[in-house]
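As the next step, I wrote out a protein sequence along with its fold in token form, included below for the reader:
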Amino acid sequence: MARHAGQDGQVSTMRARPVEPVMRVADAGELMRSLGEHGVARGSMVAVAIAEPVGLGVAVDGAAWVCATPTPCAVVASVEAEIRPRWLWWSSDTATTLLAAGVRVATCWDVAEVHRLVFGTWRVDPSRIWARLHDLPSSTMPVVGQLDLLGASLDADEGDDEDPVRPDGHLRPEWVAGAWRNRPERVGRWAATAWSAAQLLRRALRQLPDPAVAEASARSESAAELLAAELAFDGLPIDAGTAEQLITDAVGQRPHTDAEVVAQREARDAEVLRHAPLGGGHDLRNPAHVRSMLTRLGIDVPNTRAWRLEALRDVHPFVDALLTWRKAERMATTYGYGWLDQHVAGGRLRGAWSGSDGAAGRMTAQAGLHNMPADLRPAVAAEPGHVFVRADLGQIEPRVLAAVSGDPVLALATKDDDMYAPVASRLGVERSVAKVAVLAAMYGQTSGPAGQALHRMEREYPVAMQYLKDAAEAGRQGHDVRTRGGRLVRMWQTSDEMEPDDERSAMAARGRYARNAMVQGAAAELFKVWAVTVRARAAAFDARIVLCLHDELLVHAPVEHGEAVARVVADGLQEAAHRWMPDTTVRFVADVSVIGRWSDAKA
């Protein structure tokens, strides 16, 4: 059944313990001895705060230390090599700092990412996290002023400004803004504060419907955020020369003046408009104008979306020219020379990454990494002496539906490489219709060619369909839901002033959103467990993930280890699936290949 989370996702918490006194250590060796005396071993959680060149703060239950050193990342590297704890930090900003210093760690526990998981919120600065965990209203959070960062607090009632927590329970805004970096002892206290916040979050995880699954999700989601930091730092290998040639082929030579930009744009437009009908309204960038031109050519379509026009490409030369123009226009405006100059350097395409999009929890990226046109894929090339191991999950969402719903009949269909074939056989329809029916069920579509097959699905796969119905009804009623891994997916509320038709429309939209989020969110969780498993196992072969694309992984590996890494990727899926869902009834599959360029992958 879909798990409701309550109207506001409230999870009871406890009060944090006071910050412990901070002890000084001279170097990495003394720090490791102190950690060992407190029972820290491989995999133990150790909170960390880094302030260059002030020092390194470290905290565990009941103790906090500071190592005053201009090279705190080097101390982390020593502890990582000797002990390999699970580093606990406020956010992936710490990972970014470590990467910039050439330090990579194996595991982490990310306070911000776990807070997103538990409470379904996107804004996760420490002050908001702390307030939420202590049931303090965000409206009373203090705001830092310019003078606060320059010295002591201006208000005597605010207490000891060497304590990160004010007497009213809120974090001091000047600490959140960075004043914790001012002195070594503060760095240690900031690490201890992160430790306290994490313990409250772990308490919240234990109060979720399935605590063991939620705690596992906290670890994998944290690792995914660490992977996101590495993806942003490493970048995607790009053959810049090939990329520039592909852009030139699509939009023309690199323009050097505004006049040349305008001339290229007009030339692209003219190539399409020579096929256009006579009359006004010839703005190719205006969908209404394009639809009007199509109508005058005898082509009546409800909209001008590419997938709809693709089937009409041979009907009239205008349609073919229009679709070709759209590709070139996208290249010129989004993936042109400006994009190349801004985001590609040193043979790598770099953009910011996030381990969670804040809704269903999918990984996201900027700089066009998630939307790169297929025409540019030949430019994504492994570096000399390397190959790509590319893996694409097969029919991930319907397989996940079988798993999370516990439908034994749908699970049986996953034993086939192509699960739509046995579904089609059971429904007595063509494979294409069965595929549309399954997707329509997950996305809440009830009309069209899949309508009749959907009724058959309710008869043949009642458990899966009931799971989707329960999720949809929760959304319709405005109840938040939780994915299998425990992520809270919030529903928006309707206004009392809405017209009845508008309210019904909003309720229906919530229902569709909720039913899909339960499947898409769980699929994102499985994908990230797979990705972080591959990240850990591939490191032994000096291979690194360079792209995560919803259900696709691209791993950059030394050529001599290509086949071994391919086995790691394939085996990693089975390991991840078992960790994500110990019941092995549902089979997950991936197409894995070793290639030189992204475009070499099978369509």
Notes: The chain is about 45% helix and 10% strand. Residues 112 and 124 are 6 Å apart (CA to CA).
